[in-house]
Design a protein that fits this description.
20% of the residues lie in helices and 26% in strands. It is of the alpha+beta class. Strand 14 (382-384) and strand 15 form a beta hairpin.
Length: 590
Amino acid sequence: MSSLKTGCLLAALYLFACKAQAPEVVENRMPNIVLILSDDQGWGDLSINGNENLETPALDAIGHEGAVFERFYVCPVCSPTRAEMLTGRYHPRGGVYSTSAGGERLDLDEVTIAQILQKNGYRTGAFGKWHNGMQYPYHPNGRGFEEFYGFCSGHWGNYFSPMLEHNGAIVKGDGFIVDDLTDRALEFMEENRDQPFFAYLPYNTPHSPMQVPEKFWKKFANAELAMKYSDPAREDELHTRAALAMCENIDWNVARVIRKLENLSLLENTIVIYLSDNGPNGWRWNGGMKGRKGSTDEGGVRSPLIMMWKDKIKPGTKISHIASAIDLLPTLTGLANIDYEGEKQIDGKDLSPLIFNPDTTWEDRLVFNHWNNRISVRSQQFLLDHENRLFDMSSDPGQKQDISSSLPDVANKLELEKEVWEALVLSEIPEKDLRPFLLGHPDFKYHQLPARDGNGHGNIVRSNRFPNCTYFKNWTSIEDSITWEVEVVESGDFNVTLYYTCPESDIGSTFDLIFKTDTLHGEIAEAHNPPETGMENDRHPRQESYVKDFKPLDLGTMYLEKGPGMLTMKATKIVGGQVMDVRLLMLERI
């Protein structure tokens, strides 16, 4: 047996430790909460759900020692699921309608689970991919997390020691990103071992680019897949093998979390929850369900949900009732015995009665899913898809037989419920997003404006059509410009840093940064021309942008006047073929 596999199995065995040797439990203290969210991992990407292509012993052990939700639903894509999980409300209510360019931002009048827990004495930390807004107070430090380490965009371009941020400040990661995020979370748990804590680990894998350390990849590089997608011709086996390797890395890190809780004598007083944010990001084995990431069909929205609270939740608990990401906020506050009644309607339900007694009387309910102008509605037995076709999910998980004509009353009822939901919930997203990117909030030092949130004009283009981790290039004319539509929250002086690249031949170009009546002059006086990177670590060809090692350039101090306006970069002199490539601006309040 390999040392890696042995390590995973040994870590999993911590969950089955002899109760006679159990550490002393802190009495009368609210439980710690560790919430782990994977990115683009399907329901079928765990061995506990029957996938023989991989081994996830730590995750399987959580399910065996706790509760498994057999019908748990999230959204078809990343940021909507995060919004629903954080607020207990359907994502359109919180203004989340996209995964980039501002549409991923969670409205500022929404209350998050972190804010609730923080108010009730919890220390709160998030470590990973945020994806619900970058500029404070959309930033996680403004949404109840006193500690944040990771990135705020929808995806990242490099998983090995990449540019990240720590409480707003740009830093360099240390090693493979999921390992690094876990390291930071373990430090947070140890530092706060003597008080209740909420550790949120939104991992960014197996989302592409498909990068994973060699020790995990070597098992899958040439592996034969025992279980495949129901239509094997559609499966890209190289992509599947990379995704499975990334899932085994996640499992290894989950084992580290459990081992840390055990070593800190905190396992008995910690609720551990694991789920994914949408269906799989490729056609691979997923229990025969129809759909993948981006789809409102079963395979696009059904997620694993496993939960352990040692000696509180009965081992082997199976919950067959449908549940959803909107249920996590009321469930966690219920488990922590926190009375919470917000000003806004909570769409989710407290699942704790089911967790402690799966046979409890439970009223049938409906769960709605929306993405890309498609809406589906799920009851305990049926699914009405975006074309109003009806499927009996108890006998037809692949959605192969439309039974709407044989059960017209059921189909008509669900269709009416869908129309009501669309009118009451989906209508909360305005036709045009008028929210500017906020800048200069007085309660935060760092204010980042990435290329993702700006617009290039003239010859300037993005490095990739997916904006999240892009940079601007081809700045070849003094008529070209880069703009950010912003609103300065409070006037003040800010030190401005530009992250750029520029070859030797283009040194000497000058430019202005302009906001209202104030202008900051800049000059590229030093060459920095690294190649694009990322391809050397990709296990499968990517769609997203490659990245560079961008150099910070201190531009000096600029005064920003309160109010809305356009922050503009324009060249005043071009020496060579172009001005520079631009990754981001960082403004620090003085």
